[in-house]
Predict the 3D structure of the following.
Amino acid sequence: MEASCCKYFASEMCGRVADRAVQVHGGSGYMAESPIERFYRDVRLFRLYEGTSQIQQLVIARHLIRNAGR
Ligand SMILES: Cc1cc2nc3c(=O)[nH]c(=O)nc-3n(C[C@H](O)[C@H](O)[C@H](O)COP(=O)(O)OP(=O)(O)OC[C@H]3O[C@@H](n4cnc5c(N)ncnc54)[C@H](O)[C@@H]3O)c2cc1C
C-alpha cells in the first residue's frame, strides 16, 4: 500500500510539474526540439507502466477497505 501511494503520488506530481513547465515555456516548450517537450512525454509514461495510476488507486482502496474498522 505504501509503495502504491508513493508510485501514485510521484507519477501524478511529476506529470503536473511537466505540464506546468510546458505552460511556463509557452509554444517553445511544446515543440519537439525542446527538452521540455521530451520531459513532458517521458514523464507521461510514469502514469502508465509498472501499474497505471488507476491500478495504484485500486491497490490503495483495497488495503483501506480491508483494514477499515480494525
Ligand atoms: C514505453 C513502455 C515500456 C514498457 N515496459 C514494460 C516492461 O519493461 N515490462 C513490462 O512488463 N511491461 C512494460 N510495459 C507495459 C506496461 O506495464 C503496460 O502498458 C501497463 O501495465 C498498462 O497496461 P495496458 O497498456 O495493457 O493498459 P490497460 O490495462 O489496457 O489499461 C488501459 C486503461 O484502463 C485502465 N484500467 C485497466 N484496468 C482497470 C481497472 N481494473 N480499474 C480501473 N481502470 C483500469 C488503466 O488505468 C488505463 O488507464 C511498457 C509500456 C510502455 C508504454
Remarks:
- The chain is about 75% helix and 0% strand.
- Helices lie at 2-25, 27-30, 35-44, 53-67.
- The pocket of flavin-adenine dinucleotide is lined by residues 45, 48-50, 52, 54-55, 58 (CB under 6 Å).
- The chain has a mean pLDDT of 97.
